[in-house]
Design goal:
By secondary structure, this protein is α/β, with parallel strands linked by helices. It is 43% helix and 11% strand. The chain is built from 20 helices and 14 strands. The strands form 5 sheets. A 4-stranded parallel beta sheet has the order 7-6-5-12, with helices on one face.
Length: 458
C-alpha cells in the first residue's frame, strides 16, 4: 500500500512501507549513496508525519523484504510474540513513541514488551525520536546477561578489553591485557580480533587467554573474534568461551559473510554443549554496523538503519551475552561525520535495548571520517547516560591492527567516574581483591611488584 502526507499545498507520496521508512530516516551519507534518502528536509518531515500515523499492525502485514525471499523476514514473522504485543497492538508508530516516553513505559513493562516488537516497528519509532528521546527510552531498559559474570545491571558499565596486535604476538597482546586489567577493564570480555583466521593461531590465542584467566582467577570470559566456522573447527582443541560472528539484517548480507541461520544455530548448540559458563549460558557475541548491507550490495532497497535493526532479530534468536554495534567503523561513505555517528549509535543502542538485547557500542571512527576524539567523548558520555551495557577499551584508543580510533582504558574510567557507574559485580569484587580499585571503585596506585605484572606469555 502507499502512504502520503500533505504539507501546505504539496502532497508527498510514498509507494510502500520500505520507501516510507527510508525517506523518514534522519539524513546519513549511506542512504544518500544508495539513492534512498529524502530529497529535501521537507520530504523527510512529510515521511515522518506519515510514518507516525501507520498502525503497528501494518508491520506484521507488509514486509520490507518479502517473506518468501528472506530468512530473516521469516524469522521475524514466525517468532513474533502476539501476547507480548497485545498491550500496544492498537497503537500507531506515533502513539508508541509517546507511550515509550511516558512513565507508563517502565523497565519491567519494556522487558515484557520486547518479544512483541519487530525490528521494523522499533526502527520506525526511532525515526520519530530526537537524540534525547533515544537516550531517555534506552535508559529505562535493562537487559542482563551472564556467563562468568553479570553484565547489564543498572548503574554498571562493562568494558570489552580489546588487545589486538597486528602480528598476533602473544607478548604484545599480554602487555595490552595487563594494562587494561590494571585500568579496571575486561569485565565484558577479553576479546581479540585475530590478524588471520588461521585455526592454529586461534587455538594458540585461546589457550593463552584461558591460562591467564585461570592463573589470576579473573571472573570474565574470553573470545577470539574469528569466523563462526573457525570457532566450530577449534572447539575440540581449545577452550572456547564465546562464539563470535558479524551479522547483517538481510539474508544476502549474511550470505556475503558466509553464514546463515542454520550455521549460527549449529554454533550456538555446540557452544552450549561445552558448558563453560559458571553463572549463566549466554554464549554468543555478535557485532553489527550500519552500512554493512549496503557495502555488500545486499540492502534490497531498505535504508541502512532499518537493515541494522533487522540484524538484531538474528542476534535475539540466540540469546547473546554481548551485541556490539561498531558504529563508525565502516567509514564516512555510510556515516559521514561525528553528528551522523552519534545519531546512529544512539539509535542502535535504543533499538537493540527495546528488542531485549544486551547492547554495547564501539565508540569509534575511521581516520578519513569527519570526526575526532571530541565527538567520541560526547558520544561516550551520552551512552553512559543512556545505560549502555558495555564499551570498548583499546590501548591508547588506537587499534593498531584494525587501524581505526576507538575508546581507551582511561576513557572507560572517565565515564564510570563522572556518572557513578561500576564494573560488573563479580569483576568489581576481583578488582578490589587485587588492590586495583578501592571499595568506591577508584583506581589505586599499583607498584611494579603487583603479581599481574609477573605474567609471562607463552
Amino acid at each position: 500500500m502507499s502512504y502520503q502526507h500533505t504539507i501546505q499545498f504539496r502532497t508527498y507520496q510514498f509507494d510502500d512501507l520500505r520507501t516510507l521508512l527510508a525517506k523518514a530516516t534522519p539524513f546519513r551519507s549511506g542512504d544518500a549513496l544508495a539513492g534512498l534518502a529524502a530529497a529535501t528536509y521537507e520530504e523527510r518531515v512529510a515521511a515522518q508525519l506519515a510514518l507516525a500515523d501507520v498502525p503497528l499492525k501494518t508491520f506484521l502485514q507488509e514486509a520490507v523484504i518479502p517473506y518468501e525471499e528472506d530468512e530473516i523476514t521469516r524469522l521475524i514473522i514466525d517468532t513474533h510474540n502476539q501476547a507480548a504485543f497485545a498491550p500496544v497492538s492498537h497503537f500507531t508508530v506515533g502513539e508508541l513513541r509517546d507511550w515509550l516516553l511516558s512513565d507508563d513505559a517502565d523497565t519491567q513493562t519494556l522487558q515484557q514488551l520486547a518479544p512483541g516488537l519487530t525490528p521494523e516497528m522499533v526502527a520506525a519509532v526511532s525515526k520519530l525520536m530526537r537524540n534525547q528521546d533515544l537516550i531517555s527510552v534506552a535508559q529505562k531498559c535493562e537487559v542482563v546477561t551472564r556467563f562468568r559474570n553479570t553484565i547489564g545491571l543498572k548503574g554498571r558499565l562493562s568494558v570489552r578489553l580489546q588487545p589486538n596486535h597486528n602480528t598476533d604476538d602473544p607478548k604484545g597482546i599480554a602487555a595490552s591485557i595487563i594494562d587494561g586489567l590494571l585500568y579496571g577493564c575486561g569485565d565484558a570480555v577479553i576479546g581479540i580480533n585475530p590478524a588471520t583466521d588461521s585455526p592454529q593461531a586461534v587455538i594458540q590465542l585461546l589457550h593463552m587467554l584461558d591460562q591467564l584467566r585461570e592463573q589470576f582467577d579473573i571472573p570474565t570470559q574470553s573470545c577470539i573474534l574469528c569466523h563462526v566456522t573457525t570457532a566450530l573447527q577449534v572447539m575440540t582443541k581449545a577452550p572456547v568461551d564465546l562464539v563470535f560472528q558479524s551479522i547483517g539484517g538481510t539474508a544476502r548480507t549474511n550470505s556475503s559473510f558466509g553464514i546463515h541461520l542454520g550455521l549460527l544455530q549449529e554454533a550456538y548448540d555446540a557452544a552450549l554443549s561445552l558448558n563453560r559458563g559458571t553463572i549463566g549460558n549466554n554464549v554468543m557475541y555478535f557485532e553489527t554496523g550500519q552500512g554493512s548491507a549496503l557495502s555488500a550490495n545486499a540492502h534490497q532497497g531498505v535504508d541502512q538503519q532499518t537493515c541494522e535493526v533487522r540484524a538484531y532479530a538474528v542476534a535475539r534468536r540466540f540469546s547473546p551475552l554481548l551485541v556490539n554495534t561498531v558504529v563508525g567503523f565502516i567509514g564516512p561513505e555510510y556515516l559521514f561525520d561525528g553528528k551522523q555517528i552519534i545519531r546512529a549509535a544512539l539509535e542502535d543502542h535504543c533499538c537493540g535495548k527495546l528488542l531485549g538485547l544486551p547492547m554495547g557500542v564501539d565508540v569509534c571512527y575511521t581516520n578519513h571520517a569527519e570526526a575526532d576524539q571530541d565527538d567520541m567523548d560526547n558520544l561516550l558520555t551520552l551512552l553512559g547516560v543512556a545505560g549502555c551495557n558495555f564499551i570498548i577499551g583499546v590501548p591508547g584508543a588506537d587499534d593498531i591492527m584494525l587501524n581505526y580510533q576507538s575508546t581507551s582504558f582511561h576513557d572507560a574510567q572517565y565515564v564510570r567516574k563522572v556518572l557513578g557507574l561500576k564494573a560488573a559485580p563479580e569483576f568489581e569484587g576481583w578488582l578490589q581483591r587485587q588492590g586495583i580499585t578501592n571499595a568506591g571503585g577508584q583506581l589505586q596506585p599499583v607498584g611494579n611488584t603487583h603479581h599481574l605484572l609477573t605474567y609471562q606469555a607463552g
